[in-house]
Here is the input.
Amino acid sequence: MRKLLFGLLPLAFFACTSSSEETSETADQTMTQEQKYAEDAHSYSEPNSAVVKHLDLDLYVNFEIKKIKGIATYKIETSEGATQIVFDTWKLDVGMVKDGQGNELEFEMGEYDPTFGSPLIVNLGENTKEVSITYMTNPEAKALQWLSPEQTAGKAMPFLFTQSQAILARSWVPCQDSPGIRFTYTANVQVSKGMLALMSAVNPQEKSEDGKYRFTMEQPIPSYLMAMAVGDIEFAPIGDRTGVYAEPSMLEASAYEFDEMDEMLVAAEELYGAYVWERYDLIVLPPSFPFGGMENPRLTFCTPTIIAGDRSLTALVAHELAHSWSGNLVTNATWDDFWLNEGFTVYFERRIMEAVYGREYSEMLAELGMQDVKGTVDRLGHEHGDTHLKLDLDGRDPDEGLTDIAYEKGYFFLRTIEEAVGREKFDAFLKGYFNENAFEVMDTEGFLTILNEKLLVTEELQNAVNVKAWVYGPGLPESFPDVNSSRFDAVESAAEKWIGGTPADELNTAEWTTHEWLHFLRNLPNELNTEKLAELDNAFGFTNSGNNEILAAWFQHTIRNGYTAADPAVEAFLISVGRRKFLTPTYEALIEADPSKEKARAIYAKARPNYHAVSTGTMDALLDWNSENS
Ligand code: BES
Ligand code: ZN
Here is the structure.
């Protein structure tokens, strides 16, 4: 939608246009301003002409009609001769647009596209510095999930949460919805009395008397990191800078599960420099949250499915925390560069896990990641374009192309570089990278330039790594590193013994963590008869496991092999959990077992009302579901 200018610019350019104060209206800098932003195929905005710098939001959250009424007031910067500013919207009802003096500005809504929404084109006066948009969201807004009291843990109050990444922010705030455009924000939010509102900003720790809340986010962030949650929410501190929010009945278990947050934060800072967002809190959302976690600045959103009671799934916290550097500080320029956000974050996550729990532990996570990425490459096809690190998502919903290639191929690419240059050099490089590019955007080419200048300085190193094959080539390159977790070796031999006839309850599993169990389940043969599955279930209680990762891995076997004893648990799982990562493989297994899709669709009919639009988007396609069915 915009013309590509970004890739042509020298890197030094970015270092001198960092914060909003530095942009002024002199002729020279206006020119620079014109060329600053990358083309983003997923946004209608034209920031090289007119760009937002600061947002003041006034929001009124109405649960009865499932709408947010808002006024979004933007401070903007324009290049010489600009006559318009363009915002992204998705089914927003725009009432009025005014300038800073209260004069009405003419506006026009462009053509609607189901994925990208409509451009809101506002005509600017000669000196317009402020644009104020009065609007209302649509009940179908894709970023918003409105939960009834029955869909929450406490069953007493409704709940609302947002999910803006990748291009859903435009469905709750008119914005320039491109990861390369950063702005600061404040918000006044009015909710019903008795509810707490939270945002990706400085947050309250207690409910107010009147349901009014005030938020500020002083560091500039892209629109995909705007977030809000409203409900019967309480706070429990963990350390001085950390804490957890949850519904009251979930608070104690959440505080227990995430007790190591502070240690993780310290470990992260020791690795790659100071945490710049002051506080790091986490909110545990109701189970319909479609992702595991979302790195909203100052307030990670997370699924309750990682509360296992034994702190075994907290790598997710390390992951979202790591995004405070990779992603939130140095941000992918467009969704084609998504691996710069996620691959770096998985690398950083595993380094935090290694620092806190040891190398043996983090190697288990790496080996599971390796299995994941090999599975994804097999599924997509080894030559498929979506297996490149640098993606080409033009014209597509980015959500469709954002697979675990970015995460795990990205991770193994960085690990390959680490192994080639040595950890000490790599750590110094990464620390410098985050520091020098803080609050900036980065595209793949920009990163590769820095990498070649600073780290891969000899031909020998360049050949050892083979950057081109990793970044622009399909599948997994030859230099893919070897992971061999010693703890998994023991699991493999236990699995072999069982297959060879040793009874399940005689296997030596007493010391196993969740990760060993997952490896065990992934290592079982695809075909197992009912007796064999019953033997495992009796020995290890998989069907009744309180651990959602184990349940999901187990159901792969029970569904495919017709072990009907687990069917009620499968159904209960699909009805209560809305996390897409679990839904997709579970429904796929149901379809494989019954290609008429009848069984899968019968469960989906009951479960669908509990799912977020992100999940129904994927499942509707999988199950040939259309609106007539609902
Ligand atoms: N930023 C992602 C979630 C995301 C990605 C939302 C793309 C929308 C579009 C988040 O950091 C993430 O990666 N979450 C993972 C968990 C993680 C431990 C791999 C998830 O939700 O499963
Ligand atoms: Zn992530």
